[in-house]
Amino acid sequence: MKYWVITIALALLMSSGATLPLRADPLKPTLAEVNAVEDVLRFRTDMIADPDKAIRTFGARSGRTQLDTIAKEMANAGSGKAGWRYLLGSSVFTFAGLNANRTLVTFYNPWADTALFTVWEGQSGGRQIVEAEWVPGDMVRQERAEIELLPLWLRGQKYRPAAVTDAVVETVKAIETRFAEPQIGAWRETLGIQDGRTYHRAVTPIIAHRLFEMQLRLKMFAIPSEGEEPSTNALRVAVAGLIKTARTEGFKKPLAEARGTTAPMRGALSRINPYTMRYLAPVAYVAGDGHATVFLQSAATADFMISARYIERVGGYALQRLEYVPYAATYQSAISMAAAGRQ
Questions:
Q1: CA–CA dist 75, 67 (Å, integer)
Q2: Which residues contact 153 (CB under 8 A, 6 or more apart)?
Q3: SS3 of 343, please?
Q4: Cβ atoms within 10 A of the Cβ of 77, count?
Q5: Is the dihedral of CA 83, 44, 155, 70 positive or negative?
Q6: Which of 3, 23, 66, 309 sits at a 20 to 30 Å CA gap from 268?
Q7: Do 116 and 105 meet the contact criterion of CB atoms below 8 Å apart?
């Protein structure tokens, strides 16, 4: 997950005015690495704000055609431009070949369990996207995989916050293993999608509808509708209050209510600056009999997620437990534990 290390270093370098080194090092990014990360961050931001303009700006001719095809599939399924905003606004991403002329940048959205593969290449006007495709997570994680309708994090009976984290770790690990630098040029072959016409006829409609269903479900939660269950509005009000407090005051008050929060989580959440929560918003939720868990992320960065578990009470929902998951640290911990287990 070199991206997270580089962006932290990038922020420090830009704020301090330091001179960028010319050698490759995760903690000392080269100028090429910094430029590549900046381009990708701008692409992600612009795709959230204005997808059409971003595709024209960052896509070379072939890349624009392929991104436009994906946009059309989103539109046909009902997502429209909001599909790009949800897909990229809550995605993590990773690189292969960051210093090479051709760089593979993969965005992974765990909520829709969908990855957007983009190949960036140096052009006369700078680095641009020359290839793009969106792929179900099943095909990313395993060769010749069967594609399931449910996203990975919603399958089985696993504790949902842990399931989300596991989906990110497993998928990103697969990306970094199966699509490392020597395999950049053969990424379509590795995925088994050389036959683009067949792939777009048989597979992409599945992920287009999955994305739309996730958006529709979130919309039903966020926007009041006639005839909805009273409990839905009660949960909506509770989450809105949590977000407002986190954005303005931090997590001190919510933690006083969420007594089931573990000590490590209390420590992490209590240290968060409210300013970093200014774009916090719901990205998914699950509800059961008498309880619900809402997942929150910031549109400014997808480096973390917060889960809020509620218990239904008379007249509303009570916050029971908060969890803060920084994806980079969680990923590195999982990789380190796996490596230690092999020794």
A1: 12
A2: 110, 111, 113, 160, 163, 164, 166, 167
A3: coil
A4: 20
A5: positive
A6: 3
A7: no
The two three-digit tokens of residue 87, written as one number: 């897909």
Q: Please provide residue 295's backbone torsions phi and psi, each rounded to the nearest 5 degrees.
A: -105, 135
pTM of the model: 0.89
Does residue 148 contact residue 138 with C-beta atoms inside 8 Å?
yes
Residue type (1 letter), 242? L
**Do 114 and 207 touch, CB atoms closer than 8 A?**
yes
Question: Cβ contacts of residue 117 below 8 Å, gap of 6+?
Answer: 104, 105, 106, 131, 132, 133, 134, 135, 179, 187, 191
3-state secondary structure of 106: strand
The half-sphere exposure of 288 on its side-chain side, counting CA atoms within 13 A, is 9
**Tokens in use for 227?**
């005839």
Nearest to 173 by CA among 301, 297, 47, 1: 1
DSSP assigned state of 260: T
Q: Cβ distance 45 to 109 under 8 Å?
A: no
Blockwise average pLDDT, block size 10, the chain, 343 residues = 40 34 48 78 94 96 97 96 94 87 93 97 85 97 93 95 96 92 85 93 96 93 85 93 96 97 96 92 92 92 91 92 93 83 69
Pair 251, 322: CB distance under 8 Å: yes
Beta bridge partners of 132: 118
